[in-house]
Write a structure and sequence with these properties.
Blueprint: H1 8-18, H2 23-41, E1 51-52, E2 63-71, E3 75-84, E4 89-98, H3 101-105, H4 108-125, E5 134-140, E6 144-148, E7 151-154, H5 171-181, E8 187-193, H6 195-204, E9 210-216, E10 220-227, E11 242-246, H7 259-267, H8 275-280, H9 282-298, H10 319-326, H11 342-374, E12 382-387, H12 389-393, H13 397-409, E13 416-420, H14 424-441
Parallel strand pairs: 2-5, 5-8, 9-12, 12-13
Antiparallel strand pairs: 1-11, 2-3, 3-4, 6-7, 9-10, 10-11
The structure holds alpha-D-glucopyranose.
Amino acid sequence: MKNSDYGLDGFLSHLKGVFSITVEDSRDIIKAFHQEMNLGLAGMNSSLKMIPSFVGPPKGTEKGRYIVVDLGGTNIRIMSVELDGKGNIDVSAVSRLVIPNEMICGTGEALFDHIAEYIGHFFEKHHIGGQKTYDLAFTFSFPIEQHSLVSGILIGWTKNFTASGVVGKDVVAMLSEALKRKNMGFINVVALANDTVGTLMARRYSDPSCDMGVIIGTGTNACYPEKTSRILKYTDPGTFEEIIINMEWGGFAGLKMNIYDQALDLASGNPGMQHLEKMVSGMYLGEIARRVIVDMITRGVLFCGSNLSALSGEYTLRTEHLSLVAQGSDFFEEFGITDVSETDRMAISEACRIVSTRSARIVGVAIAAVVTWMDKSLERNHTVAIDGALFEKYPGYSDCVADMLHELLGERAERIRLELVKDGSGIGSAVIGAVAASSCRHR
Ligand code: GLC
């Protein structure tokens, strides 16, 4: 498209096309998803890692009390979680912290020392003590190649983490060593889980129809239970007929990237990777919208070509800003943007809507891909447990995901329930600890 070809309206309809995910596109995406799932499960080269998590779904009768550490993309949460064996989960203490930058970009040893210190503070603050030992369940929201329920090698950092000396190492061993360094060797790490697996397990503990866990927050990913006989690369003779597969769907490479996606990817710390995540998750939506807005200013269809420098810093526009716009507010004052006309306002709001709508529609397609993989003609009910701020807080996002499912599956979409499971990522790793303990007892 040449500059002379359009005014603002022309540009916005061009933008809609560039960011559209049609039903026809979706059918191809679902096919590609299924192919990549197959390859991933067979241990062949695939953009979906399909990582076995060494745990099967809970029955709801598992009991136990666990200290949970949930290291996500933006926050670290520590909780004390108790399961009563009747489907009830009690969270008696919670501490949340925004992960400081020095933990994200420093050394791995310092990262795990910080986590151990936080655990120490948590014990003090909530007066936890008196037992000889404590069991800890660790939710670690990054791709880990698990070799057992209590060991996992970090394949590579995602989101904005770069802490050195962790890739290729066992994160449970690193946490256990840090706990010992901080004189807390009485805490035993008994389970390691991805946040999607935690989310699924938290809901499944009391809802047998739950067979998918999804995170739509800083990053995005999903998991589901798979028959062990279908996981060709899985050789563990274990006790489970089904185990949960952490798909790492953020890596899916079967989507068409537009010029904004390509530019974002090239400028990112991990070019060529996490394609789906970069088009969907909270870490990137603001940056995609910023690139679109900068393009609109440069082409003279926005702000009469002014205010360019206000928006020139990468990642300065965040998904929270887009969320403000979706609520009818704006971010102009914070960025020192002046002389905003009603038309500019409308144009910004439309650009943000186009970017966030594509994200929700991709999530809808991806959920449809996984559910139809498990149940081709949708003969059963499926509850999808979802955690993450984008899904929870972005105005209209969850409806847009549901609408996409309806467009794709018609009335059969009624069989898919999307359920927010707040803090599920952490709570569920306690469920994993309890499932592991009870399967040891039954051996
Ligand atoms: C990233 C991580 C993945 C995690 C997701 C959501 O995609 O690689 O493990 O589940 O973010 O936090």
